[in-house]
C-alpha cells in the first residue's frame, strides 16, 4: 500500500516535492523547450510569492491547496523516464544471478581462463571470510 504515508515529512520537503512535481507536469503539457521554460518561470514566481510566510497555518494551507490544484490539473498521460518506475523500460533488464556461471560447461570456461581463475580465488576468499566471521558451525547448520 504505497499510498499510505509511513514517515513524517517536513514542510520544506513537501514544498520541494510539490514544486518538482509541478515542473514535471508542466513538462508533460509543454513539449517545446521555450514554452516549458516560460511556464516554469511563472511557476517559480508563484512559489516565490510565499517564501517569506511566517504563519505556519497559512503556509500549510498553501501547500494543501497547491497539492489539490496539482491533482486536479495533472496530465492524463504524464511523461516518465524510460527506466524509472512506470516507464516503458522499467524492469526489462534481467540481472543474471551469480550462480549461473557455476553451471557453465568446462569447454565454455576455457574460453575465459583468467576470469574463472580469479573467480575461483574470490570464492575461496569469500568462504574463508564467512568462516572467520561466523565459524564453520554456521556454514554446516545452514545446509
From TrEMBL:
The keyword Phosphoprotein appears for this protein = yes
In which compartments does the protein localize?
Mitochondrion inner membrane
Looking up Pfam families in the UniProt record yields: Complex1_LYR
Q: Which residues form the Complex 1 LYR protein domain?
A: 14-70
Could you state one GO cellular component term attached to this entry? mitochondrial inner membrane
What are the entry keywords?
Acetylation, Electron transport, Membrane, Mitochondrion, Mitochondrion inner membrane, Phosphoprotein, Respiratory chain, Transport
Question: Membrane topology for this entry?
Answer: Peripheral membrane protein
The organism's place on the tree of life at top rank: Eukaryota
Q: Alphabetically, which GO biological process terms does the record hold? A: mitochondrial electron transport, NADH to ubiquinone
Family as reported in the entry's similarity comment:
Belongs to the complex I LYR family.
Q: How does it assemble?
A: Mammalian complex I is composed of 45 different subunits.
Summary of the function given for this chain in its UniProt record = Accessory subunit of the mitochondrial membrane respiratory chain NADH dehydrogenase (Complex I), that is believed to be not involved in catalysis. Complex I functions in the transfer of electrons from NADH to the respiratory chain. The immediate electron acceptor for the enzyme is believed to be ubiquinone.
UniProt name for this protein: NADH dehydrogenase [ubiquinone] 1 beta subcomplex subunit 9
Amino acid at each position: 500500500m504505497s499510498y499510505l504515508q509511513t514517515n513524517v515529512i517536513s514542510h520544506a520537503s513537501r514544498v520541494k516535492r510539490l514544486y518538482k512535481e509541478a515542473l514535471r507536469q508542466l513538462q508533460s503539457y509543454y513539449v517545446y523547450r521555450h514554452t516549458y521554460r516560460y511556464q516554469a518561470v511563472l511557476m517559480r514566481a508563484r512559489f516565490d510569492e510565499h517564501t517569506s510566510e511566517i504563519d505556519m497555518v497559512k503556509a500549510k494551507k498553501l501547500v494543501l491547496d497547491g497539492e489539490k490544484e496539482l491533482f486536479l490539473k495533472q496530465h492524463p498521460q504524464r511523461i516518465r523516464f524510460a527506466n524509472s518506475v512506470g516507464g516503458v523500460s522499467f524492469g526489462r533488464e534481467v540481472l543474471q544471478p551469480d550462480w549461473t556461471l557455476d553451471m557453465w560447461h568446462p569447454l565454455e570456461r576455457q574460453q575465459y581462463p583468467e576470469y574463472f581463475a580469479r573467480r575461483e580465488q574470490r570464492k575461496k576468499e569469500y568462504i574463508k571470510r564467512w568462516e572467520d566471521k561466523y565459524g564453520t558451525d554456521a556454514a554446516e547448520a545452514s545446509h
